[in-house]
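Page 47, continued from p. 46.
Same chain as before, 185 aa.
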Amino acid sequence: MNVLIISSASVNIDENYINIAKKISEFLATRKCDLIFGGSHLSMMGVCYQEFIKRNRQVYAFTNDAYVDELPKIKEAKPIVLRTTFDLKKAMFEKSDLIVCLAGGIGTLSELLSYIEERRINEKKTPIIIYDENDFYKYLTLQLEQMKNEKFINDEIIKTFQIVNNFEEFKKNFNILSLKESIII
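Result:
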């Protein structure tokens, strides 16, 4: 199973977010998942890369021309270089079987909203799990709720993703998705 983890490459974030990325990545890598990610060696992205490589899993590093200089720092990953961030999002979505959204900045938020929309209109119904420990995505969920209440979106949008608030909920949701996946195959 190819898991796309979207997260931060910021080195200025609280260590708690690094630990969450480590715990999630370790869990997924030990369940024979392979990693798709934004191709940075820094911060949460770097920890995800390290945890999957440490467990001999395949890692696909997607990046664009602006960040190609990062690739030598993650040399065990299979590099996929695309021209624009639009191309990047599309390619990562198409290659993923599951999307896990951890805390992140504008890039992470842009990817998350793109994948929610893509899942809504696309035949490929890639599951999306938003990891919301510490209420990181509280205001996003409130915004989506307001959009729903004011009829800008409907319940179908809200059903395109799951929100988990801690590691135990994440494991439970992942195991349910894995069971569904094995039944389909």
